[in-house]
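Task 17 of the worksheet. Students: predict the tertiary structure of the chain below and write it out as structure tokens. Keep your answer in the requested format; marks are given for formatting as well as content.
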Amino acid sequence: MKSLIPIPRADREEALAIVRRLYDIGDSEAKCYYGPDSPFTIWNATTYSNERRSVIILHGRFRRKPRTLLASRAEILAHEFVHAFRAPYAAVPWEEYLAYRTSRSRILRLFGSFFRNAWLPWLLLVAPFIAIPLEAG
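Model answer:
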């Protein structure tokens, strides 16, 4: 596996500014890195946390491309910062809702928190293609 590359401070500050606009928080001690740039990786970012520290890993494609179809690098990093700030309190049912509030997209702000597992959006996309043949059966 390729090594992790630290995310520049300017990118961290841009993301923290988004979070500060919504929540009364200070600076984050979370370590932030770009991960591998693999076309087979379906996640944009992930946060690993324990009671004392958090590590945020952004997909490697964000080093060369500042946004995806639905969100910018700063929005995704801000989303992960919310998880890092909430980590000491143990996950609560509203954590994804709070994290998705960092998005500029109204659709993601409203529906993003419904997808708590990485596989759930794929299930919802595939379900009609499975149901239609079964129904026609």
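Marker's comment: The chain has a mean pLDDT of 81. Strands lie at 5-6, 31-34, 45-49, 54-58.
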